[in-house]
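Progress note, project year one: complex with flavin-adenine dinucleotide.
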Amino acid sequence: MRLTLHVWRQAGPRAAGRFVRYDVPDASPDMSFLELLDVLNQRLITRREEPIAFDHDCREGICGACGMVINGRPHGPRRATTTCQLHLRSFRDGAELWIEPWRARAFPVLKDLVVDRSAFDRVIQAGGFISVRTGSAPEANSVAVPKQDADLAMDAAACIGCGACVAACPNASAMLFVAAKVSHLGLLPQGQPERARRVVTMVAQMDAEGFGACTNHGECMAACPKDISIDFIARLNRDYLKAVASGKPQAARANGGDG
Amino acid sequence: MELRARLPAGPLAEKWERHRAEIKLVNPANKLKRHVIVVGSGLAGAAAAASLAELGYAVSCCCFQDSPRRAHSIAAQGGINAAKNYQNDGDSTFRLFYDTIKGGDFRSREANVYRLAEISARIIDQCTAQGVPFAREYGGQLANRSFGGVQVSRTFYARGQTGQQLLLGAYQSLARQIGMGTVKMYPRTEMLDLVVVDGRARGIVVRSLVDGAVTTHIGDAVVLATGGYSNVYYLSTNAKGCNVTAIWRAHKRGAAFANPCFTQIHPTCIPATGEHQAKLTLMSESLRNDGRIWVPKRKGDTRPPLEIPEDERDYYLERLYPSYGNLAPRDIASRRAKQVCDEGRGVGPGSHGVYLDLRDAIARLGHRVIADRYGNLFEMYERITAESPFERPMRIYPAPHYTMGGLWVDYNLMTTVDGLYAIGEANFSDHGANRLGASALMQGLADGYFILPYTIGDYLAQAKLPPLDASHPDVRRTEAEVSDRVERLLAVGGRRSVDAFHRELGRLMWDKCGMSRSAAGLREAIQRIRVLRDEFSSDVYVAGKGADLNQALEHAGRVADFFEFAELMCHDALHREESCGCHFREEHQTPEGEAKRDDERFGYVAAWEFRGVGEPAVLHKEPLEFETVHLAQRSYK
Ligand SMILES: Cc1cc2nc3c(=O)[nH]c(=O)nc-3n(C[C@H](O)[C@H](O)[C@H](O)COP(=O)(O)OP(=O)(O)OC[C@H]3O[C@@H](n4cnc5c(N)ncnc54)[C@H](O)[C@@H]3O)c2cc1C
Ligand code: SF4
Ligand code: FES
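Model obtained:
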């Protein structure tokens, strides 16, 4: 199949970027989207041009490294599919594709399609964990967890931290990502002691990183490759209000308390 | 070089307890002054970095991905073993130990494996407490399944995303420490060399993958948790970035490399579709619990699978191994698949495939149960192949997956370089010549949470480590060598891309040092590797600059190391004149085509000492003694 690509090329964080047009006359529908870029890059190399930089690693839709906006949609047109899992059979022959990096203030572009998502790591560092020292855990089956709760926690925990939700949101909000972690841990008995503190510190860090506010557009869920449900945002909001109302978290140190 | 395994004395079941009691402890007030550098943030690295920081050490950790959460461990699907015996089906520490020794075809150390089995149960406790959402039964208790090559149900899982959930647990513990300032994290940072001063590992030289800056980190001990080297085959189930660089560089600085030829080929992967193929995708082996593997009885039978009647199908694993059937160990399942394909009975494009058929299970258990068990795997398969496993059998083929070989380590997980440790897939320790399913996650976490944090103290408490700074001549020399290597790669200015070279090397390794090996093939491979390696250094083209985000350059450095390493791998395979586990030498098989082990001559760990690129490495043998398990030919008949 023949494809025309317009790829965002940007030499560095401070350089100006622009779309560059590339024609790929002989793509195969069995190729993944990243294999298409591989093939194109091989050609650029033979022409002694710099290949297109893009993040990727597992190529199985699980590491969350890959991600680009394809014709305005993060991870492209297929529902619940990462860019690396997207195959060209999802496009028609002759299609014209505009490929750009995630666009968000909190995710500055480093080069071409590569962005800096370390803001997500800092949000987790602020409270996205259960404080349990190695070796101090009780026997695993001493706390029963209803299957329903475990399953729902797993639904939330499936987030791969790719950032598509942020890229899709008109406000560049990270609410779906944060809500997924708050819900995952908040649904389990092990996560209860820190539940109030966690939601407050994570939300505070999210704001500090420059992510926008959530105004319930729902674009995040539509773009999410792991089908993380927007219901988790409602859950976060409930937890947040409760935590703030109870006044507990004010006493908490931001970074996880005592070691 | 001397191999001192430092195995504790005493009965097997008491060795670890006793050893722990005898380990020297670092005075709490001194811990903060001890700086440990952990390279890698997969299960092993993240668990170690977090646990060391909890103990009070000053820790630095680096990884090449943009976040520690993306390490390759994230991709593990099937599960993690632990001898909890929750199913009351007769499991025990001893049975897990025994299965692992036998599964590894008697090429691992009893003491290490016993310790692993002993620790396994605590890993599940730890991960559950961290909030890992393991699968549960309706009563709220943890669920298990049975997994590849064993007859008890001891595998814990989180849907098909066990590695992801375990890694997120470790990542979150690490994140907590980073937030508290006890771990300094360096993502997008690649280790390119080891700094050795006065015979001790004292730091690493790294290159920033954002701006290309080459710098040195100095510390009191270095822990390599950098994963496996399956990407020497180019096409593998590993993430694209997996590499041998860190452990190869350490090898060149004095760390012995053990059993490099022990590489596992996983039987259930999705076959390649064409030249553009960038990597292979694993289908979890758990499918073999309910799926039946077959090919047409007749050569060149190209009918669609549903038109092939029952009596014209060859369920070859069930036929050859009646007691284990489709659950035969990985090496056997892979080799038999290759064999039926070589006979011309393979299916799908290029006849490189066999069927994995869930039809009978769907009929027996119903669509819903199967969808519940394998829904996400089916979805993944369908996405890649555009075929639904509910409608037609899946096509699978073996692919490189895991490397049992790695840096040689003693019981404390220290390499032959003082102060240099290797944990997780990067070391050689526990899986012998073949790893059982769901045991890598267990080993990575055992090393990272429960072994290294204690054993490293023994060294740090006793070693005299004078202060060191970046101006030390050994440090400056190592740093200069790294910069020089980077510059040389950029300066070649040849005609062929890095990727083209990597593919060619990979194909060669797959053909000659893959599922089956012969002396003639290995000799030929060594010659061709040398020729290719020379071509690489004179004809590769690496685009871009050094002081930049430059993925072609990153890849070039890794491929250059694969080229050096590949020769050692073939050399090891050539010297091991026996078939054991995944290492199948065509010259050493029974008339029925089963592997013929030679314990008399090869009942040892082969640890290689580096003597120069292209120079023959020196072999050191660590004899393996089996005091508890009787040496026996594996039989899964
Ligand atoms: C598809 C797949 C499925 C699997 N499923 C299972 C399963 O179900 N059960 C099971 O037990 N095992 C499974 N395995 C095996 C298991 O996942 C791995 O063996 C294990 O996760 C390895 O963990 P690790 O911590 O040793 O290394 P990794 O997770 O590979 O981590 C390596 C780390 O080192 C870093 N690194 C590497 N090189 C450098 C360098 N030069 N400089 C800086 N950093 C570097 C990386 O950034 C990364 O952080 C599976 C493997 C694959 C490929
Ligand atoms: S919520 Fe979905 S889109 Fe957002 S980071 Fe997680 S997986 Fe990606
Ligand atoms: S490359 Fe890992 S999710 Fe796409």
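Chain B touches chain A through 82 residues (CB under 8 Å).
Chain B has a mean pLDDT of 95.
No further modelling is planned for this target in the current period.
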